[in-house]
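ok trying this again, last paste got cut off
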Amino acid sequence: MSTFPKLQRNSFIKDLLKNFGFLVFYIFYIALSSIYALFPPLLGVLFAKYIKDYKEANFLGLFVVFSSCLLFEVQKANMVGIIFLLFVFLGVVVGKIAAWLDEENILFGVVYVVLPYIGYFFASQCLGILSAQRSVSFDLWVLWYIIAEALVVIWKR
């Protein structure tokens, strides 16, 4: 039996398929979430993916996160680019805090979910004050979204 010592697996193709699969799943999911109000918008999952891809310097993954944020904002008729800028800002803040604390703690799974929702709420309120846009209400559904997404993020760790 001969071996091929120079033959290596191409991780780019695997990464491309994984990120493309995530994007297709998110497009399908965001279409379903516009029909069923019970489905969370997965902001916490997107933020956790952003943090992971940022640490690994996975630019294709960051592009997928940016595309997913863009799809969410277009579907909700929000100002385009605000969620990704929020992710960048929160990534810097969480990155500084994670440098001080143990990042493998389960608490960070919950923080990765709670911060984007709080940031999205405050950004929506500020933009609603500055312009004539409607603002997002922080009601009981958001608590359900946070709990569901925190369980997903903790499970994926």
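PB: full thing came through this time. The chain has six helices and no strands.
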